[in-house]
Automatic annotation (TrEMBL):
Top-level taxon in the UniProt lineage: Bacteria
Domain HTH gntR-type: 6-74
Protein name: GntR family transcriptional regulator
Keyword tags: DNA-binding, Transcription, Transcription regulation
Molecular function terms, GO-annotated: DNA binding; DNA-binding transcription factor activity
SUPFAM superfamilies with a match to the protein in the record: Winged helix' DNA-binding domain
InterPro entries named among the record's database cross-references: Tscrpt_reg_HTH_GntR, WH-like_DNA-bd_sf, WH_DNA-bd_sf
């Protein structure tokens, strides 16, 4: 499950974010405790707690004292908006710059995208 590309706590946070975006975790749904998460994935509980703390700081999870962690009511929309912004900044904008540099008109890009969606 975990790889060496980034710290495990960030991978934990990313996995939970993916589960929220895909709908595997719903808004106001309780998530595993840090201890359950640590035991299930055989990692240090402090590492799991750091990933969960990051999600709380980002407004993706919230704590109910004595009960556990839950998905924030607006988490899915928040994450989708952030991913859309990143998609345009990281994928679309560089693609358009490259297309302009090599002389591909925007109408050709749009036509290609439309034909891809029809296939």
């Amino acid at each position: 499950m975990f790889d060496d590309r980034s710290p495990i706590y960030l991978q934990i946070a990313e996995q939970i974010k993916n589960d929220i975006v895909t709908g595997a975790l719903a808004e106001d749904e309780q998530v595993m405790s840090t201890n359950q998460y640590a035991a299930f994935y055989r990692i240090n509980p402090a590492t799991a707690a750091k990933g969960f703390a990051q999600l709380v700081d980002d407004g993706v999870l919230y704590k109910k004292r004595g009960i556990g962690m839950f998905v924030a009511p607006n988490a899915r929309d928040l994450l989708r908006t952030g991913r859309r912004d990143s998609f345009f900044a990281d994928v679309v904008d560089p693609m358009i710059r490259e297309a302009k540099a090599i002389g591909i008109p925007l109408k050709d890009i749009l036509q290609h995208i439309r034909s891809y969606g029809e296939a």
